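Q: Convert this sequence to structure tokens.
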Amino acid sequence: MEIILGNDTYFDGDGINARGVLEYVKTTGQLPKTTATNSERFKEYFSKYQSEGYKIIHFNISSKASAMHGNAKIAAEELGGDIFVVDSKALSSGQGLEIMKTCDLIKEGKTYAEICEYLKTLPDRVQTSFVVDTLEFLHKGGRCSLAAMIGAKMLKLHPYLAMTDGQLKPKKKYAGNLKKCLSTYIRDLAAEYTSYDKTRCFVTHSPSEREYVDYVIGLVKELFDFDVILESEAGSTVTSHCGENTIGLLFITE
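A:
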């Protein structure tokens, strides 16, 4: 995705990262703008791999969060051939889980057709959620009112946001210091999701204090039974909308 900082445009991860986004906001008081990659750039990207003889499976941020998926589908239809465009219905490492699961299936020897069929239902089983420390970035992006932001700050409220049918929506509001709220969040997930794919999970966060990240990882080890816990720092796009100290646990449900 394109990240626009004032008059400068970058591609997420190329010339700009999450920490650069936070520094920009602190310096200017303005929120970066983000824009979806257009279909022509997707065609250029897909064509390179088609020319090398590859069949393509491409994952996008949720179609209800961005025009990326629609633009990729336009490019795939115009190019033709084996290009399967997946609406991840997720954000951030939610897509990563789907990509890594696809890699598992390739290693197991599944065919392209079998994998594409499996991926028609996988996005509905990915649990993507986060706890947000501050509503400042959501307010700057027009996603919550000034009154809501001020009220949350006064009452020490931390929203629990979850992907529901491809849209990020408030699920709960926790009150208290961030560490206490993160504890309640992980315990709520453990109580709600007792059946899940134990292969791996992601603890994904925007630039955050190490104490909070380590605390969440410790709770996940205690309350879940994942073979691997992967830590990932969110990119510029997610950080642009959620701000620092946003932390989530993401995994595939059964």
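Confidence is low (pLDDT under 50) at residues 142-152.
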